[in-house]
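S1.2 Input.
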Amino acid sequence: MQTIVSISNLSKTYATGFRALNDVSLDIARGEILALLGPNGAGKTTLISIICGIVNASSGTVIVDGHNNVSDYRAARALIGLVPQELTLGAFDTVWNTLSFSRGLFGKKPNPAYLEQLLKDLSLWDKKDNLLMTLSGGMKRRVLIGKALSHQPSILFLDEPTAGVDVELRKDMWALVRRLRESGVTIILTTHYIEEAEEIADRVGVIHKGELLVVDDKLALMHKLGKRQLVIELEQAVDSIPATLSAWSLELSTDHMHLTYTYDPRNPEKGVANLLSAISDAGLLLKDVETSQSSLEDIFIDLVHAKS
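S1.3 Output.
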């Protein structure tokens, strides 16, 4: 796929000596949804802020659809919409005026029809004349998204977009993100919510201590790094695992009724079918079998702990 944002060897060290980013390189494809996962202080917001031109990098380059975001800042920034983590809105303006003003800041001509449809998509049309100070936190979050989309950007950055919002609103926003992607908008979001990345992202990147540990297609990542487990319930308790099964690295439960096998499905010789046959040959009777696979949360925790 065509690259719309190219990040090369990006590093950021603040005046205090804190190194927020360490040699990060990443290509973002046009039209994809990329989720960046990481704990607090991992460097997610710093990375977004540098791409958007809010923070200066110590080294490295960012190219936004062919435009260097430093030497050709205006052209690069015009392509980007940013929804910050903080609810940074005035109190005494209306929803409609806020979006209209934001659109004008990017030199866009007035387009009431576009703004009307945008507010309807955000379930804000009935609030268009309301003062911002009268809105709930969830509604203010929607207004921030409206501001970011008011100038019709082709790239949208969402920094913790569902932080502090209820589950219903979170699902509404996931649906909105999907619609935006269908319209051709490239979306990059940071999140603490693993289920958010698992639900809507095409690719997932994990950032920890300023380093990009991994970035890959969501399903491929789960396939490559996710563990699969087989839990076998026996008809009768056993004192120990038969010696003939030693090659399988099985774990016996404390009640001596369950065997747990952690395996790589890409290794057919150590596959489930061969194991079950070996268990039968060992004279053990099976009562039930249950399988499970690692979630993105499991993979995230393993990656972060391995790097710590």
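S1.4 Remarks. The mean pLDDT is 85.
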